[in-house]
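Continuing the series of single-chain predictions for the mutant panel. This is the parent chain; the variants come on the following pages.
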Amino acid sequence: MHEYTIEPWDHLVDSATSEADLEQYVPPELEKMAYEVISHYDMTVSEMTLITSKPDKGGAIWKIETNHGPRSIKVLHRQPTRSLFSIGAQLYVVQQGARVASLIPTKENHLYVEAGGKLWIVTDWVTPLEQLMKIDLEGASALCYGLGEFHRHTKGYIPPNGSKKSSRLYRWNQYYEKMIQKIGWFRDIAHAYPETVASPHLLSVVDKFEQQANDMYEKFKQSAYRKMIAKGEAHWGLAHQDYGWSNGQQGPGGIWVIDLDGVSYDLPIRDLRKIITSTMDDMGTWDLEWIRGVIDAYHQANPIDQETFELLWIDMAFPNEFYKHVKEVVFEPVNFMNTELDAILDRITLTESNKWEVLSELAKDKEKYLPGDYTEEEVIYDVNPSAVVLGNTDMLVSNKNEFKKSDPSKEQQSMPSTFEEPKESKSKDSKTKEFNSKEPEAKKSLQERESLRSRIQRIKTLPSLKSNSSSNKDHLVDLDLLLKSILEDDLPKLLKKMNEEKEKPSKVLKKTERPTSSKPMQIKRTNAEFESIVAKVQRKKLEYEQKTKKKK
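Parent structure:
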C-alpha cells in the first residue's frame, strides 16, 4: 500500500482559511489512500464525498455510494491500538442490539484496514437521520433515552487483545483536582494582567467558583464513588464522552449513536451530566422541569440508583461551564481577556443565578431511586482469548455474556492506591485520610500561588521584553505554566538519578589504564534526558506558533 504517513495537515492550509473550510479539505495523498483502502472491500464505489475532517488530528470521514448502498469510510485519528479499543466496542454493542452502524468486513474478513499508520473502517450509512431540538423536552428526553440504551448495551465489554484500554473510571478525583488547580491559575493570571478588560470581572467571580469547586470536592469524597468503581470497568461499561445533539440522532427505530472513536470505560452518568449542564448554559437558565425530564427518560432505559443519582448531582454542582469556557485564558491571556472573556462571564453569571435553587429542589428526587448494592465482589466477563483475533470478525463473538466471579485475593490492578480498600480495620478519620492521601494540587499554599504570579510578573517587567506585543506576553505565560509542569514532573526524577550516579564510588585509574566506556555512556543517557525536557518545550512552542499563525 502507498507509503504515505498520515499526520495533521492544518499547517498546510493558509492561515486565512476559516475553520469550516479547513474541515472540508484533506491532502490528495490521503484521498488516494482512501481509494486504496476501498480496494480491500468487496464493493464498487461510484461516488465519494468528504463529509468532514479533523485537520489538527489527522482524521476524516467520507460518504461513499456503492453497489451495496450508501456506506461510510473513515480514518480514525488516534493511535492504532487505541482505535482498536473503539472498533471492538462498536462490534460489541452492535451484537448487543444497540443502534450503531455495523462494521463492514474486508475481503479478508477483517474489521479494519491499517494504512498510513492509522486504522480505517467502513460502516453502513444509516438513513434517514434527524437531529433533535435541544430546547424541546420531548426531543431531549428521546436523546437521553437513547443514551441510556447505549450505555446498557456497553456493559460487559472486554476489549480485544492488542488494544490499548481507555478508562476514566478511576480518574474522577483527578479531573476535579485539575479543575480546582486551574481555577487558581485564573486568579493568578487576572492579577498578572490587571490592564486587560476582563481582569476585574474575573477577579470578582473567581473566588465564588473556586469555593463551589472545593465544597463539591469535599462532598464527592464522602460519596459512594469508591464503592461504585470497585465493581470494575466491565460492570459499568462505556461512556461515549462526546454524546450530544450531533452524535445521537433520530433514525429507524429510535436514537442512533454516532462516532464511537472516543469511548472509554467510565461511570456512564458523566455523559448525561455533560448534556444537562451544557444545555443549561445554552438556554441561559437552569430549568428544573427539563432536567427532571431527561433524567427520568434516561432512568427508563438504564435504571440508576440513589448513589448514581447523588454522584450525578455532585457532578452537576461543580462549576463545569465556568471552567470549560474560561480555561482558554491559560493559553492566550491578554487577547482572550480583552476580546471574549467579559461577555462569557456575563452569560455564565446570568445562567448561574438560579442554579442552586434548582439543584436544591432536585436533590429531593434522590428518594425516588432505590439504593444500589455495592457489597458483592467485581464481576469479570469471561472471554475466550483464542477468539480475540485482531481484525477478525469473530472478535468477541464467544463472549455470550458468560461471567465468573473474580478472585477476591487478587487486588484490582488498574485501581489507583487512592481508592484501594484498607488492608485492616481503621477509624473513620484514618479512612478519610487514606482516601485523600493524594492531596489535590489545587490546595497548594497561597505562597506557591504567589510564586507563580510573581514569576509571571517578573517576566513582564524584564527590560528586554518591554517592547513586545501582547501576543508575546501570552506566549510567555503559556511557556511559564508549561515549564512549571515539566519541571515538577521530570526534573525531580532526573536530579535523583544524577545524584545516584554522583554518589557511586569512582575508580582510580593507573597512568597506563584507559577509562572504560561505561562512564561516557552514562553521560550520554543523562544528556538525552536533558534533551527530552528541552524537546517538550520546543514542541509546545512550535504548536503554539502554529496555533497563533492559524488564528491570525
